[in-house]
Each structure stands twice: as C-alpha cells, then as structure tokens.
C-alpha cells in the first residue's frame, strides 16, 4: 500500500502544498503588475533562494516573505521553481504542436490546438499549475504598460518553462514566441479561467524587433546550461558566457 501511494505521488508534478504556495505567489505578483521590470530587474539572490525553498516545501514561512514586498525576488523564485520541476510543465506531445514548423497554419490555430490538448490531456495538479501560470501571464500582458517603441512587455523569459527549445535560430524563437503570446491571450477563453474580459488586450500582442535582444539572450543561456555541466569553475563559465554574448552581439 505504501509503495502504491509513493508511486502515485511520484507521478504528480507538484505537491498540493507547493501548488498552494505557487498560487499565493501568483496572487501577490498580480498586485504589482504596474512594474515594468517584474521579470527583468536585478534581484537579491538570498531572498530568491528563501522564496524558492518555501515554494518547494509549501512552507508556512512564504506569507512572511511576501509581506516584505520582495516583488522581483518573488517573480525570479517562481521562474526558478517552474524551471526545475521534476517533469515538464507542459507534456512533450503538447509542446510538439508549437515547436513544429506548421507551415501555412496561423499562430492562433496552433495556440488553440495546444490549449485544447492541455484541457484534454493535462489533469489534476498539473492542470491547475498550468492554468495558474497562464492566468498570471495573461494579467501581465494586459496590465503591464506598453508604448509604441517597445510594444507589450511580453514575459519572453517564460518560454523555456513551457517549451523545450533546442535551437539558437532566432527565426524559430520568434515563431514560437508568437505562438506563446497567442496561447496566453486565448487561455482565459479556452481554459475557462476566472479572469477579466479578454477584449481589452486584443491588438496589444506584437513581438517588436527590440525583443530580438531578449530572444538571443535566452538562446545563449540555454546553450550555457550544457556548458555549465562540463565546467564547474565559475571563472570558466563567466569567460564562456562573455564569449557567447559577443558571438551573438548582445
């Protein structure tokens, strides 16, 4: 009996307490969406580590940490926690819909198919986790200030959490980013999320040319994950990092 319970728990992507903790962080971050640097600002690593620990164990200390007003650290901790889940946030067969070329198929149709499979195939806590994150990202897109120069502040750094992209080709990144934005935009309707009306965000979702900077940077970081597994010395990693940044003109 005990082994059966352990097998069931092992199949879960997240514990019930951790899911509750993630949802608490999401609610906290929603109250601070006026900040443009929520995904990009400098953070205190010690604070990020403390919040990440509480997310992993669903600890009661999370509320105390959030009361400190650590917005950037909370966003960074959420990103780190989701990146290090024991299973992919989105199952690989669903990811494939967005990662494949799909010539002649619009991003809207691809996004709708992805969300349809999420609703059909993702169950239990994993479904609630995906829904909570998409609901949060929808609110980010809707509430974050935009302007003609930079476009909408799309949380591009969240793409590797949803999709296991194994390429540095910027063209693929832009295509997947466009699909990702459509997934976020359509999620409230397709997944029946309890959020505000989606009409207010129509027309805001444009990936500006300036976003190439961020896309290149993420591609470099993904390459450096493999580099980091071969080189343990921080100085070596730093030199490789700067070399890669120079290669991509970042």
Describe the structure.
Residues 22-164 form the Rho-GAP domain. The chain folds into two domains: 1-86, no CATH class; 88-202, no CATH class. Helix content is 63%, strand content 0%. The protein contains twelve helices and no strands.
Brief summary:
It comes from Photinus pyralis. By secondary structure, the chain is mostly helical.
Main β-sheet, in a few words? none
What is the oligomer described by this structure? Answer: single chain
Task: Please state the structural category.
Answer: mainly alpha
Mean pLDDT: 78
Spans of at least 5 consecutive residues whose pLDDT stays below 50 are 196-210, 225-250
Rg estimate, integer Å:
18 Å
What's the total helix number?
12
Alpha-carbon distance between the two ends: 55 Å
Give the overall shape, derived from the CA principal axes: globular
> How many extended strands?
0
Order of helices and strands: HHHHHHHHHHHH
Share of helix among residues? 55-70%
Number of domain units:
2
What portion of residues belong to β-strands? under 5%
């Amino acid at each position: 009996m005990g082994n059966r319970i352990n097998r069931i728990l092992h199949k879960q992507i997240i514990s019930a307490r951790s899911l509750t903790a993630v949802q608490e962080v999401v609610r906290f971050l929603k109250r601070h969406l006026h900040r443009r640097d929520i995904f990009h600002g400098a953070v205190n690593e010690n604070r990020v580590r403390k919040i990440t620990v509480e997310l992993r164990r669903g600890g009661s200390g999370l509320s105390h940490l959030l009361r400190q007003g650590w917005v950037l650290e909370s966003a960074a901790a959420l990103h780190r926690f989701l990146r290090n889940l024991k299973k992919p946030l989105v199952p690989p067969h669903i990811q494939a819909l967005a990662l494949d070329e799909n010539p002649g198929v619009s991003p809207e149709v691809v996004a709708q198919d992805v969300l349809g499979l999420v609703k059909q195939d993702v169950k239990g806590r994993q479904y609630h986790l995906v829904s909570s994150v998409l609901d949060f990202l929808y609110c980010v897109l809707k509430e974050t200030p935009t302007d003609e120069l930079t476009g909408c502040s799309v949380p591009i750094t969240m793409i590797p959490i949803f999709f296991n992209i194994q390429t540095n080709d910027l063209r693929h990144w832009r295509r997947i980013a466009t699909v990702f934005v459509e997934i976020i935009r359509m999620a409230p309707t397709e997944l029946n999320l309890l959020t505000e009306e989606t009409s207010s965000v129509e027309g805001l979702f444009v990936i500006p040319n300036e976003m190439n900077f961020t896309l290149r940077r993420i591609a470099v970081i993904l390459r450096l994950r493999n580099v980091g597994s071969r080189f343990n010395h921080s100085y070596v990693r730093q030199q490789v990092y700067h070399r890669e940044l120079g290669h991509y003109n970042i």
